[in-house]
Amino acid sequence: MEESGTQPRTPGKEFMWLPITTMASGMELRLPVHIITGAKPGPVVGYTAGIHGDEYLPLEAMRQLVQGLDVAQLAGTVIAMPVVNPLAIEAQTRHTPTDMQNLNRVFPGDANGWVTEQLAAVVIEWLLPKIEVLIDLHAGGAQPIVDYVYILNDEALSRAFGFNALYRPSQDYPGTLASIAAAQGIRSVVVEMGGGMIANDEYLERGTRGLFNVLKHLQMIPGAPIVPETQTLVTRMAVIRPHQGGLLYPGVKLEEVGGIVPKDTLLGTVISPYTFEVLEEIRAPFEGNFVILLRPTITKVHPGDYAYMVAEV
User: Fold this and answer.
1) Around Cβ 256, how many Cβ atoms within 10 Å?
2) Which residues contact 294 (CB under 8 A, 6 or more apart)?
3) Is 73 exposed, middle or buried (0-12, 13-18, 19+ CB in 10 A)?
4) Is the pLDDT at 137 greater than 60, yes or no?
5) pLDDT, tens digit, for every residue of 230-286?
6) What whole-number distance in Å separates Cα of residue 151 and Cα of residue 94?
7) 287: buried, middle or exposed (CB in 10 Å: 19+, 13-18, 0-12)?
8) d(C-alpha 154, C-alpha 5), whole Å
9) 2, 9, 94, 101: which one has the fewest Cβ atoms less than 10 Å from its Cβ?
10) CB neighbour class for 249 (10 Å; exposed up to 12, middle 13-18, buried from 19)
11) For position 8, what pLDDT does the model report?
């Protein structure tokens, strides 16, 4: 797998299981790994998905990448890990059901900690020393839908992914896989694509194209990245969470993801399914609000759930 020439390179596609531990049920906790070695030398790129178990669309994008890569045309190596948290995937939950930890908040993990921390530690130890680029795929989850790409430590690479909205945070997010990778000098991109079981075809097409765009940008496969003529860069983001639980009725529609709405626009209304009274109205906080994440259909919400994300224009 090394590109330095210290080990022989054998072009082809390989599959392996990365062992983690044995669960109380007797089940072996292990992670699937696809390794695609190109016919020519080049960079090593790692793709990860399934860190959160309610984010399914990135898994399919990864499958299309692995099946669509032509080894003869590939310069370098792709390491694809489509399911980084199998326990959460099985339960369709954001957190690991065994210990209720959020895997993307505990990196670099702890070999002597919770099972989620043990999982994180193995991923860090096994994957990061092998790669020069990390592309970490996420989605909005089972209910929200989201649409943007983070700029972390390589703006050109983030832009090359080809999404319309780009977000440059003012500070790192502690405990994320990408933050640990970036701190180690690995060029890192985090993608938020789709979710909510809505508009899957559109997000899958754009997301899969983005995976290949990265390889084109790195000159690992032929061609130029396909990107929008204009991309919107935002630096201030508000995560808007309801204070009341109940049913959240949308005030903004699916097509308004990526659009701009004025201050005090009604984003959504929390209504009691028992008394039918309005418990809360959620409104846009900025003068101009670039809609990043929303819930496009009636959904159940607890106080503090992700409901909307808007960026200041």
Assistant:
1) 17
2) 144, 145, 250, 252, 254, 256, 257, 267, 268, 307, 308, 309
3) middle
4) yes
5) 999 999 999 999 999 999 999 998 888 889 999 999 999 999 999 999 999 999 999
6) 23
7) exposed
8) 27
9) 2
10) middle
11) 56
